[in-house]
Amino acid sequence: MRSRLASSLAAAFFALAALPVAAQDDAEPQPASHGVAEPAPDPGPWNRFGTRWVTFQPTGAIALDFVRYTQDDTSIVQVGDLTVFEVPEVRAIRAGVLGTLNFEKPWLFYIAGAYRGFGRGFDREKDSAWGLFDLSLTIPIPKLGRVTLGKAKEPFSMERIMGGGVQPGIERAMGTDALTAARNAGIQFKNSFANDRMTWASGVFNDWLFNEERLESASTQVIGRLTGLPMDQPGGAGLLHLGLAGRYSNVKPGVLRFENSPEVFSSPLFVDTEEFSAEGMTHINLEAYYQKGPFWLGTEQIYTFVRSPENGDPLFRSVFAQATWVLNGASRPYRRQAGIFGALRPRKTVTDRGAGLFEVGARYSMVDLEDGEIRGGEMSRLNGIANWYLTGGVLASFNYGLVRLDRKQRRGRLHERLSAPGLPDLLMDWPCPWPARFVPDSGAEDLCSNAALKDSQFQAVPACLRRNFSPLEALVSWVGGSELSRRG
User: Fold this and answer.
1) What domain range is 458 assigned to?
2) Dist. CA 318–CA 304, nearest whole Å
3) Is 35 inside any structural domain?
4) Is 129 helix (H, G, I), strand (E, B) or coil?
5) CB of 300 closer than 8 Å to CB of 176
6) Does 487 reside within a domain?
7) CATH value at residue 290
8) Residue 381 and residue 401 in contact, taking contact as beta carbons nearer than 8 Å
9) Which of 23, 73, 113, 258 maximizes the CB count within 10 A of its CB?
10) What are phi and psi of 133, to 5 degrees?
């Protein structure tokens, strides 16, 4: 039943994507040439609309999940028989609008939401079938940088800020999702300095409006991040990124809970502190990434200090380390004004009769939710990774994971064969140098150029909104790939 539903949704979305759309253009006419034929003006991508004052482009995606499990007896006692989760699942249908208000230095806006009534949805703690994920406006401030207002990514962790398609694994590391928030509502500032070798970002957040709470009874977060490039050799000869971030929350109404699955969306919770009383918490994140040619190595550590005297002031922690190799030689671009890596982009895609890109790698991740009086469990995963980037926005991905869970005074083992077959982002612009994902995780202001919209680049509509996109490319890639992964 679910397989038929997924196939029907795929066909419907591709049919919609293939419909012709007439773009609007109120640009002033160009003067006639003198003796030289002028080329026809670029009409822009098929799904871009705009006037002199505003330009916008719709985005959309369907996310699907599939996994196979092999458990030992202890694992079955700890989390139950997981074979019930071995069915294709429609995670959500997602749509949004990204665009600019075309002042002399354009303002960027991004709105995105999803229908998740098929199952648990993107946010498993949410019961509503509809969800609003992004609602933000980014404004350039001379000399200061950029200010973002609304609901967007928190500037805390490299892995969290980067788009899901930049990650080598299908899911983010277990500790990142267990200990940190994805999005929050507030105000944040960011900029680069030292000839773009360093970045800073800071913000204040309180999600009371979107959570339908009173302002005085909702938690407030203060966040800051600093990054630098102590090594930056030309020509891909070596790049070293270091980062430090901090996050404080006053924890209202005085209750916390940390939980996560084993880097698989279609699974129950493996680690869970359940609710416990707390007066505040502080997160510290350490980042280190190194890239040389096709080799990419990265690690992050998160330490969460909880002020909860009655529970012994527990300290929770997580770590991951990963290494990947692109077999045919490409490397991830580094976006200096955001302090993050971008997505791999094959120079010659399968739709251009090329081979795309092939990447192999491994990742170890761990999260420990046991300290003081809290017994939430400790979990680790060793993950094998194989990715085939067919185009700039479609890939076939396979992960094999060995999971160990220490909980309930037992140690269980679990083998996972994970793929996330899903539709590509039908309305996005594949040639554009954005993260290979349908949502701008790092904030819309960081996605429209490799220079992340420095002042000089606010003079025109971002290049991402001017590029062409062929729906046929997505269709051919979908038919040609057996397991197409759009990673969240």
Assistant:
1) 2-28+41-480
2) 9
3) no
4) coil
5) yes
6) no
7) 2.40.160.10
8) yes
9) 258
10) -100, -45
